[in-house]
Amino acid sequence: MWVATVLHRPVVPVPLFFTSHLSPKVLLKPKTFRFGFLLPSLKLKASATKKQLQTQEPDNEDLHNQEKSDDQIFDLGWLPTFPHVLVASMSNFLFGYHIGVMNGPIVSIARELGFEGDPILEGLVVSIFIAGAFIGSLSCGSLVDKLGCRRTFQIDTIPLILGAIVSAQAHSLNEILLGRFLVGLGIGVNTVLVPIYISEVAPTKYRGSLGTLSHIGTCLGIIFSLCLGIPAEHDPHWWRTMFYIASMPGFLLALGMQFTVESPRWLCRVGDMKDAQTIIRNLWGDSEVDKAIEEFQSIISNDGTDVNSRWMQLLEEPHSRVAFIGGALFVLQQFAGINGVLYFSSLIFQDVGIASGALASLFVGLTNFAGALCASYLMDTQGRRRLLIGSYLGMAVSMFLIVFAINYPLEEDFSHNLSILGTLMYIFTFAIGAGPVTGLIIPELSSSNTRGKIMSFSFSVHWVCNFLVGLLFLDLVEIFGVASVYAGFGSVSVLSAIFAYYFLVETKGRSLEEIEMSLNSNMRGGGR
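Structure tokens predicted for Major facilitator superfamily (MFS) profile domain-containing protein (528 residues):
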């Protein structure tokens, strides 16, 4: 899912893509039913069919065929779940916003707080965010196991709101560092929490498409922050306003989660079957209730009723295999070069006459957004595995195209245009698969009992690799040159496609319980 955050030596501003308390009532357990989408039938019928039924009575076979055709066109089975997923995806909007909010204003912040010209301190202000995100990711699994998704979302808004306000009011280096650390802490929790929540709440048929809303939210957050940051080029104090604005989505998220549902799978694990059945009935339909509860109980009987998993379980099969896949996917995603490509995208745009870093980043953001929209359609039609393989192969082709433009004697304008094409192709293909699929498929492969811990482990690996790539990238470019580093990124992309081909199983159209039982049976069969 996840676009890169930052590089840690900001020679130029990095064009990026990856104090009040809540009312106690916000944290109280609300009633089960919230957003009102009680649809006895989750499909709409065409108006022409309704008129026909009023004027004449067709035979049963014709009516059945007509209804089947209309059902395929007006399939709204995703609609009851959509508002709940949309509220959760607001967390990713905050993630994207906080990525982009440091894109230009870091220069103004450094000047006003007295560390201008010190690349180490400027890099520290940017990278302290990653340290907080790493800790937040590690802690999220335990919080979800104990508190459930909804309450964890609400508690997590506290560091997000406090961090934004402390950053906005900062008058010293230490204060801005504290604010960015708190924001990173909240973002780290959310990056783990959102995929878990969506995977457990969404109906099986629409889980992939709804899962891409998190990546779309990140893209919109980046674009919004870049547009909002335009006045920062003329107003040296505008960065404070941007941080104040960053606190508002946190309040909206805390309030919005009061009206969303809890994960029915978590409710079953804690023994609240009645609420779980009500949620399944409202979101998935009456026909799914008995089957879903039966699957939940079957998994619980195998895993046990203890909602608090242990970290040591990640060393046991099949959890160790899924943890390995989750960590490896994020290692490959980060070392496929998204950080570096985004860093150099502004320089490539400058070569073709786009001098504004904000405008260049906006082009990149819109490309990322377009790719995410395509992914929302393809995820449940083409499947996760095929999409991920195709995405990495497209990223590899894009990298080698840029290497060709750099190394071979071409007309200057043609070479620059080829580099632009390769950059936008890379970002688009990343947004189609490597970005959204990575965060979506890991909770799908994880067992119900260890899902939180595996996601925490996987995203902590993500943040470590993100930091290392940002730390080493400029040194590698200085030693080997841009073309060689980009060729390395292309090679890692090819390796990632091979890894996905041999290690991933397709999860499209299968419930989480079906996937878990299949993996468990495969492991037992392999042990014989």
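The domain at 317-527 is CATH 1.20.1250.20 (Growth Hormone; Chain: A;).
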